[in-house]
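Note to self: keep these together.
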Amino acid sequence: MDNPGMPAIRRGMTYDSDILIVGGGLNGPALALALAQSGLSVTVIDALTIKARKNAAFDGRAYALALASVRLLSAIGIWERVTGNAQPMLEIKVSDGRAGEGAAPFFLHFDHAEIEEGPMGHMLEDRFLRAAFLDAMKEHKAITHLSGTEVVAQEVTPQGVTLTLASGKTLSGRLLIGSDGRRSGTAERAGISRTGWSYGQTALVAAIEHELPHNGIAHQFFMPPGPLAILPLPGNVSSIVWSETDETAAQFAALSDADFMEVLRPRFGDFLGAIKLQGKRFTYPLNLTVANSFIADRLALIGDAAHGMHPIAGQGLNAGLRDVGALAEVTTHAVRRGEDLGAPDVLARYQQWRRFDTTTLAITTDLTNRLFSNDNPILRAARDIGMGALNAMPGLRRSFIREAAGLTGDLPELMR
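Structure:
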């Protein structure tokens, strides 16, 4: 255990912490830091050990952090710890095509120079972000971090919530946060059901070293089986997220590294010169899953526990960090007004703020994947003409750039 937190005493009751967060990935620690800055005590319970979380090896995961997400990370003291490992995204190019044929003549081109705020976002590997969160939590006296332990039961009363850990230890708090992924045990124990489906697609993920510089340009290449994203990392390295049908992905994943590169090259193209694999390859099955409610009695869900979507627009972590910003704002404002931070009307404000936005985003990514992941000639012609027309409209294109930067909609204070 790191940094035993301060007991919270409210209305004659003593709690181990004001807020209990189940899940120690990224969104949980981000929320813990945001709440701790406001004077609340927080306990983070993580099923993984610190050693597993701090594994410095590249595991295929890298995030396209929108500008708004970078602002939040800066506000909670994380960005200064990772900025040296981040790669600015200066342009995004979106095109349609087939393997070996190159891109269609119509495409979308987003350039950060069209907005005033700076780069649309940054690419950052998961391993650097994880380590930064662990170090920051360890340094904060208001945060208790319990690692390598699982929650086996939760009980809610009008006054608070009690968790039982696998060790038999119990913890009490005023509010419970589920940040424990798409198969959230926190949501399941609260009786929250989910809506979703599998895409029949698997993402093949790897780091690719290339001969020529990427110049901070991200590429999204739509092919009939699924999209191929080529995302810039520091140096002459890019992360690929290559979606294929489950069957084809399983075949490609079973290939040797040399044979894998042979099937990747015609899809990747030669615009970055010679390419070679850097490190290991990984696979992640793709599905859509949205919790039917983001709240329950003295409980709120954030991140993948609330919504997991297709990585086609790279919005998974960005949507989670919006949850973090919104819930931190709702909670801290409630405390300042003397309200019970776990009260139904307080939690309803969070749900009202985030549920419509995330459901809309999930539907949009789902429809985009269905529109582009096919070889229907009529749909192909329509989407190519649509992209060409959009690219020719500066005002509309600029609005898409601001959307990609996370600067639209009702932004939490931490993202402004």
